[in-house]
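Same chain as my last thread, 387 residues:
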Amino acid sequence: MTSPIKIGFLQPYSSLYPYYAEHLLTGFFLGFDRDPFRQNDIQFIPYFTESGSGTKCAEGIKKLIHIDKVDMISGLISYAALPEILPLLESYNKLGFFFDMGENIPHFDYLGDHAFFSSNQLWQSEFALGKWASKHFGSPIGMIMPMYEAGYHLHSSFNQGVSMGSGGNILLKVIDSTKMNPHLVLPAPAIAEMKTGNPSVVHALFSGPSGLQFLNDWHQAGLNKEIPLIVNENMVYDEWLSDVRHLGLELFTASTYDPRNESKENKRFVQKFRAIAGQDTNMYALLGYEGGLVFKELFSFLQKKDFDKVKSLLKTEKVRGPRGERNFYPESGFSIPEIDVLKVKTSNTSIDRLVVESGKGLLYNESIFKDIREATPSGWKNPYMCI
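reply #2:
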């Protein structure tokens, strides 16, 4: 009997999605066509990385390799941790297969042959939103976000989209957190200030309770349906937007995944996850599922623990999942996601989404990658929403 495949899992803390790891791993096993509660040939061994810094990830990798004797490394990481992760993967000749929300653009200066990614590519939907907004609404475009969101590539991706669209001025307002609670922001003063600039449209970039506070303050200021509002993708996830749907909001966003789409691949995923987890799908479950799909294809080599072959195949392997074609090696060119620009309307009883246009993503080797990265020369080291 062959020994199980042991996978070390780097697991940061998230107050916004405290069960993300369970959802991600459930999705992984479902994509692998296995019951998450009844399998023994694959074992995930977690290591708590606190906020997910490169230092903590490196500590985790050393412990998982030396003490737990894992065969490969996985987990939720930030690209900012790669400078400390990649040398370890190379020195120990270990495969790393990681998950991320896509809050930052991959650093293509050096990724090596050991690291692969199941990414949501949030920056792609932000770029598409900026390009669409500049053409549809004109200038000036307002942008409001907390200091937290300002530490990632989301706003600079939006700005580049504006530049590559019809251009225009950006009215930027960054909100500091309160002294009593570093994760709580008060958007009302920024909204009032933004209103005086007469923006043609406002883009709000928030996450978690701060996003709910913004939507409440926006409505309270009487701006709902008065000034067009664009929000980032995660602000309209059902688990958050359902708390404020009674406000009768009207807003726009861009998304790379619609859980309601009728493709056979998506219907299979939604049904399997609901049956095993007793709830609707979410982005973490989807990222795990897409990873499970590709490892299912490579399982014969995993069983033999031929990880050099697995790494070689992962450079070119593609799968068709709930949101179309996906691949996992940036230097081979991430598949450009299918992006929908949506008009979202809420009521006491429903959240309605209407596709108004197909957004345009970016090829992996576009020169503006460098421009976007340099627009945020420093930032947070933790994965997005791991606060």
